[in-house]
């Protein structure tokens, strides 16, 4: 059937095309600007030097180590807490007002600005509990920040596990703990892992909460202990960008290349883990 | 089938939460209760921390001065504590960012859900989401080193720190929030509605604009409010790009200050606890927290209304 030419039809369609092209264009411009400015400064001694007031000697060694500390400790706190909360909400909680209240609460927590978590961390971990401006305070603050993301990913992954798997397990006499531990969790693992890795990559990029708890931006030593003071990549970048000199902006763009490299490879890791699990369990 | 699923699900809930005498079962359940309580305690913690310092603050500064004062100069004498300039700066960035992100976000969401099929849709959607995964400090860097210098070629009187370039980068940052939430809403519109419209001879753009979009309107509204709430809570990009001069003006070419960047500014300066400056970050934090909480609750109300209708 021959259709009449319609200006409106083309307009609606090409508005959509334009919007998608605009967004993709922003992404491409953003990455291009960063890589053009950042790649030239990316030498080995940039990775192994401490920050310095002389741009030529400055590096990101302490920031890299600090980022690693924050990443590992945040994972230690947030993964067990988030996954257990997700299990509780999906498998154990009765459908009543308490469950709905907790769900609304978690949805709202995920919308709280990161700087407010920073204020919480400053008041509770730094001052009240006396952990001072340490890695421990930073990791605890970051854990609270990404907890809602992990919980939501876990509940969604568990919800997607077919009912028949649970029924079969109960049918052969498994206890609730055994059903969850040996059947529901392994089945939900790809979804949970993807959520966890994405949440951790958010933790690596966040800087506002760590600035609030007073992470130092000039750290010329490597932290050895959870109670040591520290800096992370994103704060080092913030520090360099906020200086007026061009040379520091160039350092910032090299550090951004490293930061984006870590974040992007975590995303690739998430995809890899997901496909591996699907294969091992015989595919979907 | 639906009925059977429900019965099974009910039976399952009974067996999962049935009382058990085994020690390991009880330890397992106990751990789950403790973990779940952490998220509740976090919310209580935020409210208690913000309120307790805010109460101390309002013992020295009156409500009237705080909510109606037009000057915010807590760090220099004479000190004034009127929140309006910070709220004004925050709204300027939030509204500016929405002006960019709402049209782009909703147009790409409608396009992806109605015109694109299969794996291309998934690829495009997840590529757009990369924009949301880029650390916000990177957007701040781009605003200062790229967006502002480019804009200055067209707008000569643009200040080095300005609300405009902050709003642009924050707008780009929240495109994925708006587009992916909207897209989910558009895709959830039942197929019967589309089929009926096609059966009446509707063409693709007519179905998209007069059936799918109106049907998913509340989901779209929810996405806009969520995006706006993310924009006003955004911290690092505006701290770097928008400056630190609180102004009660809606001129986007000038340097302004948002609530979030004030909080960062004070915390960078190592202010001793117990002073009025230290308490002011909690009051500003409380204002910001209330604004985002109210936005998020409204967004949830809209998306629940959408789900009740169709899901």
Mean residue pLDDT of chain B = 88
Within CATH, the superfamily of the largest domain in chain B carries the name MetI-like
Helix content of chain A: over 70%
Name the poorly predicted regions of chain B: none
Secondary-structure-based class of chain B equals mainly alpha
CATH-level-2 architecture of chain A: Orthogonal Bundle
Structural summary, described in words:
The complex is a heterodimer of chains A (284) and B (311). Chain A has 284 residues and is mostly helical. Helices cover 74% and strands 0% of the residues of chain A. Chain A has eleven helices and no strands. Chain A starts with 6 loop residues before the first helix and ends with a helix. Chain B has 311 residues and is mostly helical. Chain B folds into two domains: 40 residues; 227 residues, MetI-like fold, CATH 1.10.3720. Helices cover 77% and strands 0% of the residues of chain B. Chain B has 13 helices and no strands. In chain B, helix 4 runs parallel beside helix 7 and helix 8 packs antiparallel against helix 9. Chain B starts with a helix and ends with a helix. The interface between A and B is large, with 94 and 95 residues.
Core attributes:
A: about 280 residues, mainly alpha, MetI-like fold, 11 helices, B: about 300 residues, 2 domains, about 75% helix
Write the layout of secondary structure elements.
The complex is a heterodimer of chains A (284) and B (311).
Chain A: H1 7-38, H2 44-48, H3 61-92, H4 97-109, H5 114-128, H6 135-159, H7 163-171, H8 176-205, H9 208-212, H10 233-241, H11 246-280
Chain B: H1 2-16, H2 23-60, H3 63-68, H4 84-114, H5 118-133, H6 136-154, H7 163-187, H8 191-199, H9 204-215, H10 217-233, H11 236-241, H12 259-268, H13 276-310
Helix pairs in contact in B: 2-13, 4-7, 4-10, 5-7, 6-7, 7-10, 8-9, 10-13, 12-13
